Amino acid sequence: WKNVDTPDAVFGNFGFSNDGDTYDIGLGYDFGDFRVETTYEHQNQGFNKLDINGVEADASGGVDIDSYFLSAYYDINLGDSKFVPYIGGGFGKSTFSADEITVTGVTLQGNQDATTAYQGKLGVSYLASAKTDIFVEAVWQKIDGPSKILDSNLSDIDTFGAKLGARWRF
Fold first, then answer.
1. Which member of 28, 57, 94, 151 lies 3.0 to 4.6 Å from 117 by CB, making a disulfide possible if both were Cys?
2. What is the CA radius of gyration of the chain?
């Protein structure tokens, strides 16, 4: 898998099978119209294909991605409305942990690698009570591709999704 003379010449990309799950939890501080938070996010993704230097092969295995973000948000005050739109962004670190990976019948040892991650969010909160918000948000994330998984430079993970959650104030 690795060209010893030119190790940077090996590039890869997982074909994720969409059978994973994601959850996150955070702790933050609300300054009024401005909020900051730290979050931990866990993703578990299975994959069914692996592309190395343009050659696609059937593959199986899984990868866990644990991310830590520091984010800031600006809440847009609409007066007496219980709806509060917001925009935010953050940066952090992601750790990839790959299981054993089987490619065309050959089992390869997995590995770990840490990379930089970024996110942007656009959402709306509903003020359910004085201490509880319910929110829905669109999330864009970019996680730099790991270079130690399979000793290859895997592609960045660039995703767009939605989250539904609750926020409590103490």
1. 94
2. 19
Q: Are 148 and 113 in contact (CB under 8 A)?
A: yes
Looking at the chain, which runs of residues are DSSP E strands? 11-16, 21-30, 34-52, 55-75, 83-98, 101-103, 106-108, 112-127, 132-143, 153-154, 157-168
Token digits for 6? 């030119």
Q: Is there a contact between 63 and 13 (Cβ–Cβ < 8 Å)?
A: no
Complete DSSP assignment for 109-127? ---EEEEEEEEEEEEEEEE
Token pair 């103490």 is at which residue?
170
- Tens of pLDDT, residue by residue over 6-34, are 344 445 566 665 556 788 999 999 999 99
Q: What pLDDT digit, counting tens, does each position of 71-115 carry?
A: 999 999 999 999 999 999 999 999 988 777 777 777 777 778 888
The amino acid at 163? K
- Tallying the residues shown for the chain, one arrives at 170
CB-CB neighbours of 123 under 10 Å: 20
- Cα(23)–Cα(19) distance, rounded to whole angstroms? 14
